Amino acid sequence: MLQRMVSGFAALALAAGLMLQAPAQAAAPGALGYVDTQKVFQSYKGAQSAQDRFRKEAQDYQEELVDAQRKLEEARKANKSSDEIAKMQKKFEDELKPKKAKVEALDRELSGKIKKQIEAAIAQVAKTRGFATVVDKAAILYGGEDLTGDVLKNLNK
To answer: How far apart are CA 95 and CA 45, in angstroms?
Structure first.
């Protein structure tokens, strides 16, 4: 879900870096910028509101799923026939399928939106600060310049 996006975004940044056009006043040649994308995601107000929206939708779906499971269990305890239970199960699955699809679509929509916003902020900060390459903090063993604070300022303004 949205949390998986953070690790996916970090892997993307780690694997390829964020290659950007360097402005005329670039950082020192060979200078490398990095961003703690985990921290950005956790501290970005937009990501937090997206997570809250997703949690609400997912919780509603989860409550309906638990209710359906409870009703099936009650039917089993009441010794309903296997045909009746199978019909009930099919009915619940049919009712819940579009709701599950809606939650999954919302997850994709919000994750994509937040990822684009974070990438745009990183690009803007890198361009302003003169970095041609920005990678995730997890890729840094030594050196580089941390742009995380500037990215968060850009996002949360």
So the answer is: 34
| DSSP conformation class of 26 | P
pLDDT, one tens digit per residue, over 62-104 is 999 999 999 999 999 999 998 998 999 999 999 999 999 999 9
Closest alpha carbon to 35 in 149, 153, 155: 149
Q: Could you tell me where the DSSP H helices lie in the chain?
A: 2-16, 37-43, 45-77, 82-129, 148-155
Pairing, β 133-136 against β 145-146: unpaired
- Using alpha carbons, select from 106, 95, 93, 129 the residue that is nearest to residue 18: 129
pTM (2 decimals)? 0.69
